Amino acid sequence: MLLEKKLELEDVHFMEENAFVSLVFDTAGRIIFANRYFCQLSGFSSDEIKGKVLFQATDEASSSSVLTAINIILLTGETWHGEIYQPTKNGEQLWIDARLTPRKDEQGEVFAFVMLGFDITRHMTIREKLHYRAHNDALTRTLNRQGYFIRSRKKNPCQPERMAPTHSWRFLIWITSKNINDDLGHAAGDEVLRCFISRVKNCISQDTLLGRLGGDEFALTFIEGIDEPDGRQLLQHIVEETRQPMTITSQAQPVGLSVSIGVARYPEHGPNFSSVLKAADTALYKVKAQGGDDFINYQVTGVTEPGGIISTLEC
Asked: Does the reported pTM lie above 0.85?
């Protein structure tokens, strides 16, 4: 009987040291104790991390920090459970499914926090890959329709407190490239689309949302807004870059391309993402009907022309 108890205790000790991440923090989030398994996963020695604050999330939307978890526990008095992230010593990802529990003294004051968790790095890596595939276009390496809609709705400022100054334009631009699949084949068409997107990316900043809505239609959203002169200059740049002949591997002669752009602004042309998108779509088809290779700004019906579209901006 004693032997069985001893074996059970040894099994528990083995699990604690080799299967579970076990950490103890003080009330400021500094590490007091780290078990051998965490040190093995992270690459840090116990001495290197003792007294340090780890798990400082850079993006609270995807992971929580230890300090955030501690504050939640102090407010609610309940055990915290969530996914937590820490770069390893060599810069790789380490994700932990963690449960953080407060420890109290005889007076009921919290003096420490104990974390028990599992290594879920492989699971998170797979999840990130699936998320990327679900929200990005494999051909052009941009957001796909679903990804673009989700990101735009998350970032589109639909509340008054997040509105930009009146001098700042918020563009939603639909772009359509000339469909060449019928003339040159799908392989050539794919190469042209990749070249087209590369040129557009060279015209915009990294915080501008770019997405492929389907076929040869793309969209841009300037989340932080853009002044009118800068907006016209940027659109002119996109049109001119697209006009430049494209050299593709399957064709002896350069391929010509044109672009049609419809423009709409928030909040002038709609109170939310869907209405601004519809306004940009209306402007897009107006410029296509006029021959394309240009850009048009949408206007509210009755403000200028009866049809609701102002004249093509000078290119």
From this structure: no
